[in-house]
Structures are given as C-alpha cells and as structure tokens.
C-alpha cells in the first residue's frame, strides 16, 4: 500500500539512481490533487521508519499541488556527504484517492550521490499542471454566483459583460504553466491512479512544455520558501 510508512511498501532499497551532490531537483508527477507534501532524505542504506529521514523541502508551494508535472530544487548535500554515499529521497503527501477523506501517502527513490561534474543524466525540470478537482469546484461555484448576479441585473448590458469576463477568469485558475527545460539533476516519483485517457493527456502536456508551447507560470525549478 502506498500509505505504508516510510516508503509506501515494506520492500527494501532497490536499484539506486545517480543523483548530484549539488544542483539536484525532484520532479513530482501526479494524476490527481495532493496536499501538504514534503520532501525528506535519509542517509541510511535501509531506512525503516519516518524518524530515519530529515526534512529537505516543505514550502508553501507544496501545500496544494495540481495534477501534472511539478519540479522542485533541493538543497545541496552537506559537506560531509561524499560521492558514492547512498541515500533515499522520500515524498510524503496527502490525498483522498480511493477514500472520502485525505490519507497520508509515501513514495521513495533510492539514490547514490555523484559529483556534479560526473552527473551525465540530463532531464527537463519544468512545471506543467492542469486544474485539479478543487480548482474546478471553485470555478463552478464562481460561475454559479456570477450567473445568478447576471440574472438579477439582466437589464444592464454593461454588468452582463463584466460577468462574462469574470466567468472566463474563473476558468483560467490553475491553467497550464511552465515550459522551461533546465538541465538539472532530478528523479521522477510517480503516483498513478486515474484512467488511461488522463495519463495520455499529461504525456501530451509534457511534450508541448518541452518545446516551449506553454507560457511560463511558475519558476522552474521551484525553490523552497
């Protein structure tokens, strides 16, 4: 189960991914809204509990994330951590997937540090999301209120025009953003839930983002507050 601490399952360390001592980033790919996320790290070869991890990133930007691809830079490794050191990155987040209330979920990635000069793997670090369910509910509520106000003041063409503009603005909340392809260290942590159609749509979003077809919305990568 993904809600088994500290890494979503009882399985031990898997094949480790090279990760730079400096200039690293974590890319989060989600199929639904998720909240109150934080990124932590353990320098233990086999972390067994949450207490084995220390906090890396817990920013305001992580409190409410929409479906799609979001990238965050992480602090450089401490001076005493050298190339060849094993570590595990942990992402903790909350979501109401498969339940009526939010639950806490976990995802981990086993890494081995390398000098930045030896880090050859280059991935794009960008932000491309679509409105989550909470965004859509807010937009729908906004439209309903404005439609009622427009009905009450139908005799005023100017007011009707203003309502139309407001409704359009409501649909833009949480629109696609981020198109920068930055060559920085990173690793993908996946949480798949929704149907195949949405997964294909996200792949299409990412492909467009890599080619700069979406306007910048948030900085890429995001930094902790």
From TrEMBL:
<feature type="region of interest" description="Disordered">
    <location>
        <begin position="132"/>
        <end position="166"/>
    </location>
</feature>
<dbReference type="InterPro" id="IPR046530">
    <property type="entry name" value="BIM1-like_dom"/>
</dbReference>
<feature type="domain" description="Copper acquisition factor BIM1-like">
    <location>
        <begin position="2"/>
        <end position="130"/>
    </location>
</feature>
<keyword id="KW-0472">Membrane</keyword>
<keyword id="KW-1133">Transmembrane helix</keyword>
<feature type="compositionally biased region" description="Basic and acidic residues">
    <location>
        <begin position="133"/>
        <end position="146"/>
    </location>
</feature>
<feature type="region of interest" description="Disordered">
    <location>
        <begin position="199"/>
        <end position="225"/>
    </location>
</feature>
<protein>
    <recommendedName>
        <fullName>Copper acquisition factor BIM1-like domain-containing protein</fullName>
    </recommendedName>
</protein>
<feature type="transmembrane region" description="Helical">
    <location>
        <begin position="169"/>
        <end position="190"/>
    </location>
</feature>
<feature type="compositionally biased region" description="Low complexity">
    <location>
        <begin position="147"/>
        <end position="161"/>
    </location>
</feature>
<dbReference type="GO" id="GO:0098552">
    <property type="term" value="C:side of membrane"/>
</dbReference>
<keyword id="KW-0336">GPI-anchor</keyword>
<keyword id="KW-0325">Glycoprotein</keyword>
<dbReference type="InterPro" id="IPR046936">
    <property type="entry name" value="BIM1-like"/>
</dbReference>
<keyword id="KW-1003">Cell membrane</keyword>
<dbReference type="GO" id="GO:0005886">
    <property type="term" value="C:plasma membrane"/>
</dbReference>
<dbReference type="Pfam" id="PF20238">
    <property type="entry name" value="BIM1-like_dom"/>
</dbReference>
<keyword id="KW-0812">Transmembrane</keyword>
<keyword id="KW-0449">Lipoprotein</keyword>
<keyword id="KW-0732">Signal</keyword>
